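user: Here is a favour to ask of a fellow structure person. I have my own habits and do not want them to colour yours. Could you put it straight underneath, so I can go through it closely?

assistant:
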Amino acid sequence: MSEKEWITIWQRHKGVKESKDYDLFYNPLGLPAIDFEQCMVMAVFEGSGWNSTGLKAVEIVEQGDDVVLQFQSKGYQTGGANGGGRQVTVYGFFVLPRSSKTVVLHQRVRTMDMRHPFTWKEPIRLPK
C-alpha cells in the first residue's frame, strides 16, 4: 500500500539485505514505479514448484465489499526420458486500483483430467 512497503518486498524478492536508504534515482534492483495514491500491489509467493513461468491474473472484479483477484499458474507440461521438469519458485505481482475493500484471492488450479479442466482453491481473504 506504500512505496516503503514495496521497496522492502522488492528487496526480499531480489534476495538482498533490506535497506531503508534504497536509491530510487539509480534504482539498482529495477524496482517498478507504482503510484500508490492510485494503486496497490498484491504480491503472491507460492514457493518451490515445477514447470511454471509465474502467475497471471485471470480476472479482477469488485463484488460488494470485496475486490476479488482470480489468478493461476502459467504452468506447462514436459516429457522425455527423465521427465524434463524444471524446478522453479513461483510468484506474481499484481497492480490493482487502490481500494479500502477486503481483497479476496482465488487461485485457479489446472487438473490433468480434461473432463475437469480446472478447480478453485479455497479463497484467501486479506483484511482491509
Notes: The first strand starts at residue 39 and ends at 50. Helices lie at 3-14.
